[in-house]
Amino acid sequence: MTFISVLAVIFAIGLASYVAGRHRAILGRAQGQSYHSLPNYYGIWAAILSLLPAILVLVLWSLLDNLVFHQWVRAFYPAELLSSDSIQNAVTLAKIENIVDGIRFGDPEPWIIKAGEAWTVWQAESDLLKSMISITLALVGGTIGVIQVNKSFRSRNAVEGVMMFGLIASSTVAIFTTIAIVLSVLFETIRFFQLVPPTDFLFGLEWNPQFEGAERAGSGGGTATYGMVPMFMGTLLISAIALFVSVPVGLLSAVYLSEYASNRTRSIVKPLLEILAGVPTVVYGFFAALTVAPFVKSAGEAIGLTVASESALAAGLVMGVMIIPFVSSLSDDVINAVPQSLRDASYGLGSTPSETTRMVVLPAALPGIVAAVILAVSRAIGETMIVVMAAGLAANLSFNPLDAVTTVTSQIVTILVGDQEFESAKTLSAFALAMMLIILTLGLNYFALQVVKKYREQYD
Amino acid sequence: MTDQNFKGLTPSESARLVKASLKQRRTKETRFKLIGISAIGLALLFLVVLFTGILSKGFPGLFQYYISFDVELDATRLDPKGDLSVESLYGGDYEDIVLEAALKSLDEKGDRKLKRTLRKMLSSGSGIRLIDYVTSHPEQLGTTQTLKFALDDDIDSFMRGFIDRETPESDRRIDDFTISIADRWQEAGLISYELSDYLFFGSASRDAEMAGIRGALIGSLLTLAVCIGIAFPLGVATAVYLEEIAPKNRLTEIIEININNLAAVPSVVFGIMGLAIFIVAFGMPRSVPLVGGVVLALMTLPTIIISSRAAIRAVPPSIRDAALGIGASKMQTIFHHVIPLAMPGMLTGSIIGMAQALGETAPLLMIGMVAFIVDVPTSMTDPGTVLPVQIFMWADFAERMFIQKTSAAIIILLAFLITMNAAAIILRKKLERRW
Description:
heterodimer; A: mainly alpha; MetI-like fold; 2 domains; two-stranded antiparallel sheet; 17 helices; 77% helix; B: mainly alpha; three-stranded antiparallel β-sheet; 5% strand
């Protein structure tokens, strides 16, 4: 039986339990007994009892059975393979799994065929056992639920207890996701630092993982170097260009929209600006690579500058456009939060609107604006697709916006897209970069929060 | 102008000073206003440039050039076994039949050079197209029909004027002889410029003229289905817990901090988590919509939680008091009154979150949805790709025609996004309640 059909059977049982439980309660009520809860709750309780354990077992079993087989199948390995490294192991596992799927490439070793056949048997047995156990659980649970229907059983409280548990469990998903993110990056980073000393990574001025393949192949040709400085400089350069575009444009639009524009203009312009935020980044990337980069190149060459065809300037400009609505909507909120009484006081002293804005509103909103800019920096640093498509891959340590630079995110994507071997320092370096990226973005966010907390003026 | 200078000023003198500075101040005022307007103008200009750039390239990409000529659907040659089975059709003479029909359209017997050129000019999928036609119209076997075939992408680019006749022959992708044949077809009125059926119904292909988005679109829909199936219930449940139930304690604080952190984490990091946890640790397959959907769900979760919380907060406390007052339990109040009343707001937020997920590329690259997959995925565990990733892949291909196809795919993606956002706005307008 497939997963879906087992699930369907379990749901049918759950539905039946619901109907039976509810019906029993209704019958009891008709006989004049006063039940603690409404009939519905008895039905729902029976359904919960039948569905919850059964589905839990089914899903967990389906997720974990392969892991168990991976262990069992090691019994078939010849002794010398057991001690070999994990690349060899992964290849072997893939071979065995191919046999299980009925695919044969060339002539596999006889023990692999044997292992594959054993695996097929385990899979079949496990599937059968899994379906039987989960369906039995559903039946037993449903029956218990229906039997439990009686006037003193507080089914509503029981159902609400389960609901409460569900709500709390859902809320903790955010915590587990954070933990998962940190753990998935942390372990690989530690392994990376066992291969490459942290000081080389953090302060190295040269990034060149390409040599690793050559080194392994034995052709020499230099050693792989993993210094992250060029990439962080590239990231900062592109982010700086992006901010150079987005902060003035975004901030001034926000000022105009909140201080000058009529309601009508606001209601038209604001959604139009929001469109810029809704455009997928891959579209910006395509636009940057296809339109802006050639334009920057030809414009630069027209005035006699050498411009790389994948210049930092092009990527930065487009990223700046993408962040404009981010800056403008955040600053808009902050500016609107400045109390009207401050403006009125300023007008009352005879200032013009622009003087009020420059000397009263903006200083009052400054902490919020600084926070908005910091958040924009964090957004720019984490942006991926634009730089993957429009910035280069050459890790130049350069501050010239017309050069090609690379960024942390584009290196991560380049390294991790496609096939990787999990043992190589090159693959692991992507995780170390991701670690730095997380630390940097979360640090910036924390910093922004602190700025607001520390310098915010309380007006009310 | 310090205080000291003001000391001896009489009111009339200061009035004069103020008056004298008025002109300058007014100019400053106008200048400031102009700067504000130009900032908005600049932002809107970027928007216009972006959209005209995409639309002007993309609209032609929705179309492509076809050639139509009479094809003799010879039953014995096309379907040698006579049972219309796949083996029989693919064992047939379809490639040659197309070629002969092309020769006939030019009234030529055809030497080898001409045949070779014709083969290059027609899309390499022409034979398959003929088979597909026969499978869907078996009754027409034995007749002669006018059929339409796609032109190869180089010819297509030539017809669009991207390949200039004036360039020396050696520098062009197509030679003079090919151009002369294209001209003959053109004069005979056989070449037509039509809405591309390959774009909408074709699957991934390295041949630009045959590449389509069908697989990617279905992959996107499957991924989104997983994403909303996970993110919406989780997001709503979290919002309900935090707004209605959570006591002010350490756990609640940690949950809130984590939600804010998740909102700040770059999307590519979610992809790395998906790779490390789901694919490497749990051994789930690569490139499948199921994993993609889970990763996107975790990514959009903060958006949905934040908007759902706002929606719940907008439900006035009097509703809760009334429900509690007539004896509803806490849970009944929440599930019977608060959630239904907050539903429009929560749906709006979720649709916007889904639009975000639909346009997301980077995390899906990490979990391998960037593989070149020709088959259209039929379930959540079939390898597939999604629309933005398809755009990313096409943007990397060198052929001239892929630029148009990419832009056309972008238009389709934007159309989806605009529809979703419009739906969210309409929903909000229609169902929004003012208390």
